[in-house]
Every structure is written in structure tokens, then in C-alpha cells.
Design goal:
Keywords: Cell membrane, Membrane, Transmembrane, Transmembrane helix. It is a single chain. The chain has one domain (2-49, 69-112): Helix Hairpins (Orthogonal Bundle), CATH 1.10.287.3510. The protein has 4 helices and no strands. It has helices spanning 2-21, 25-47, 70-99, 105-112. The longest helix has 30 residues, at 70-99. It starts with a helix and ends with a helix.
């Protein structure tokens, strides 16, 4: 469990460092996606528990502990929002690529700086 947490933490750190140190816009988007995937993986790791059943309504009374469906809904929402944000950033990158010969941040800033 500790090794898995460490791997997820390293994934988040790699995404964060890529976001800071990469100068290409496309690579920054990929680094942001890696960081978001690490955060979602960490949340799934924390929320996972053994011995809990799926909350299915039956006619029998039961004292078996059921899993909470709210974390699952939060994770699905985070995945959908992350995908839509990534698609929006890629569309903006395509628009930048049509107007600029390069996707380097410094060159784009130099061109649009007054």
C-alpha cells in the first residue's frame, strides 16, 4: 500500500514538474493530464476498502456494511470534467498552432506581447 502511494505521489510530482519546466504548450497539456490522473488515482486508493458490498436495494433486511456510492460519483465527475478541460485546451492549442509556427511558450509570448 505504501509503495502504491509513493508511485502515485511520484506521478503527481512528475506531472507538476512537467507543467513547470516544459516550454511546449502541448507538453504542458500532457503534464497537466498526468497530474490529474495521479490525483484521481490517489483518491481511488484512499476511498477503496475491502469487505464492503455494492449498495443494491433488496427486500431483505441486512446488517452487512455497504460501500458509499458518493466517492464513485465524485471520481466519475472528475474524470469527465478533466476530459472536457483537456479537449478545450487541445482545441485552443490547435488554434495557436494555426497562427504560430511554433508552440513554444516564449515565442508565443514574444509575438503577442505589446
Amino acid at each position: 500500500m505504501v509503495a502504491l502511494e509513493a508511485c502515485i505521489f511520484v506521478t503527481v510530482i512528475i506531472g507538476f514538474l512537467g507543467l513547470i519546466y516544459k516550454s511546449n504548450v502541448f507538453m504542458k497539456i500532457i503534464a497537466m493530464d498526468v497530474m490529474g490522473t495521479g490525483v484521481i488515482a490517489y483518491y481511488c486508493l484512499i476511498a477503496s476498502r475491502t469487505g464492503f458490498l455494492t449498495p443494491i436495494v433488496t427486500s431483505q433486511e441486512s446488517t452487512i456494511p455497504y460501500a458509499d456510492p458518493v466517492p464513485q460519483a465524485v471520481i466519475l465527475t472528475a474524470i469527465v470534467i478533466g476530459l472536457s478541460i483537456q479537449a478545450l485546451m487541445l482545441v485552443a492549442t490547435m488554434k495557436l498552432a494555426r497562427e504560430n509556427p511554433t508552440l513554444e511558450v516564449k515565442a508565443i509570448e514574444k509575438q503577442y506581447w505589446p
